[in-house]
């Protein structure tokens, strides 16, 4: 690879040209006469470009015969021939839908959207940075057809799960590749959590990108759009383009302040009639009371009863004891951006400070983001683009979920317990043990104030890119980019902890990096009056590394000192640096005929270090085409402004991780009797392993009508994944538990619809609306002859599995149901309690049947109202939370049968195998305790419709500001997750997740409530 770059550099040094360049300046305004900042100004067919500054002015060096393109999200793209001019002023019309806009595609290449043979959706900066979230992925919810975003419910700093056109892999990664300014970045941490016991959702990938620095996110939907990324393209790509300064004179300053306040969006509905106790009684001594932690006691009548502190108190309801645990979480995101520029350079510096308080006590996030980017014309032909970003973040007490999580200790607390009493979590003069209303002693305030859970992340992202224009139709660039992260974690369970009474600690350090060096040769020229050819050819050298060191300590010698030396038992762990190297060459040829017929052919060959030498080389091709048929059926554009049919086929891969080919052995740190002890993994690795193979076919229809007042975009796709990398169970006689093999086939088929327009537009008022709808059908076609399912996760009791099933799909839910006999009668035990079935039955699937979003923007003069309603329809989810609420007697449902008891309408199995009618009456406690263990009773429909986003903004008129030093000012009221319009499940948010990986879907287990955010945003430009 070094030789390639050396030759490439020599070519730069030897090549010269006499083509003259000149500086072209101008102003881009809207139909209101005001300058538009951030407009893309690009020399057609090249990477030479800039953006307008805060007052809409620009400066760019261009050849006399060049054509310059002006584009902005939501506005009509305009092309202007230079023809020797030094000043070109442009007016962009705001009533365009965007089908003719220039969008960023694979490898960072800008193309006219009308020429593409595959689906690409671009989300602009206003949709990302106004209703701000620490994770820009959450800003895609409801805005992009075919994209399912499941927001992590672990509090500040957590990642989200992004799935484009379905899940392709059973055991591998299903989330898209993240590319920032043309450079792939590390996405470690995006697949985290998932344990039903103790699940923590971490950050990484897109969560570390500053929303205020983002100019746009292009969603490359699936393999067809992302084929040039080869073995990393299987799940699509999120292309992030960040802001850069605009060439020209002057200094621009932008200040943005976003302050929002988070409160729980939905909390359980509690009964407040019965308190702590069992079978309608309140124990008279504190030990028996602490062994009866449910609310099956007597009616809350205000009488004096035993309390968990050992005193007697009035036996009265505490209606808000769970609600009062939460606090209003304030989020302060303040950013400063400086733009400086001359005729041949631009510099942009930004700093963003984020201080976010969680809704749970003593939990917060603090981050700082520094970014510096510069574009310099080193000569008329040689240009430099360089950027450096430093990010640091500290998260204190990220919330863990599951049955050992924070909320598990209080979500079912007795209805008469005052939450404020739990703030006394220890009395060291009496005992080091934690104090709570139950004998276990689990107390959330102990976990949040006494234990320690800190995570610190430092990250550097940077790149340098040199672009050389060899001729007006031939240019090249060379680029190198790197992404280095250092993650430090500290976890301390203080002595007296309800699970780890002697104390435990874990300190860890992880270092992750990804470096990419690439080059691209770009040819773009009219062959004649009819044909235009664009060819791009290049290569990439990618190195990804990971190393980790940690130490575990247990049994503190001195209870108050959380140090490694203070622990009796110590277990160090070290993962030496692993390297994953991929070398690639690729090419793309685009041929257009009379600007109505387009054909694209791409090919990429990858050589991966993680694959055996015989299978190391893989070729990934794609073919796409599109026709602008409106030029035939409506050449005068009386009805159609654009009508395009498109089709594409692609074959890509899904690479595997390191060290999966040859067996290795681990050395025990403390061998038996001091001897050296070796062990090996239980899986037999495969020297013939191949990457997962993904083939995709797509067809689409796009159009705009009535002077671009109405538009639509429809797609159908079919994706097939084969050679799934899977650990196949084998008999123990082989010496292994599993063999790693390439097996199976999974398919995803679906369609997407985007429809919108401008129903009303007058001089002072406009109404813009767009809606999207998508449906995906997933099927696991086969695994092996001996294997018909793969289990992702199971509940604590084992009464339910989330799995992929042959003939079914990814995310199938199998669980117990009511036990019945052959006649369909419910079978109860000898005590009259219902029972769960022995076998698990199909109860549903966690994937939604369809998703959609509706965005409306109403503008009256300088006042604008934008709101987003999104829907997730169908799909099922099991709520362990709901089962616990009812089983412990705190939910409103548990009030039924309290006074009367119940005789279950069922039968009792006799010793001779016959059945007799049940006549035994049982209490509500016995009934709901039994029902809570039956999985089918707590599988719910995920259907929900909500008001996801709302922005009410006011742009201060220009005539008010013209005599001041302020160039532009906008203030607005913003909101996210404001309320449910409809949901089927009670007590919880059906979109909450246990994790962002494959094991975190389909189960709710003591999740943090989703946050309702309300606040304001102020943006001022000087």
Explained architecture:
The chain contains nine helices and 55 strands. The chain has a 22-stranded antiparallel β-barrel. It has a five-stranded mixed β-sheet with strand order 10-16-17-13-14. Strands 3-2-5-6 form a four-stranded antiparallel β-sheet, with no helix packed on it. The longest helix is centred in the first third of the chain and has 13 residues, at 2-14. The model is unreliable at 1-20 and 95-99 (pLDDT under 50).
Summing up helix and strand content along with how strands pair, one would put the structural category as mainly beta
- What's the N-to-C terminus distance? 46 Å
The counted number of beta strands is 55
What's the story with the biggest beta sheet? Answer: 22 strands, antiparallel, barrel
**Which parts are unreliable, with pLDDT below 50 for 5 consecutive residues or more?**
1-20, 95-99
Give the overall pLDDT as a whole number.
89
Helicity level, as a percent range?
A: under 10%
Question: How large is the count of helical segments?
Answer: 9
Q: Measured on Cα atoms, how large is the radius of gyration?
A: 31 Å
User: Overall 3D geometry?
Assistant: globular
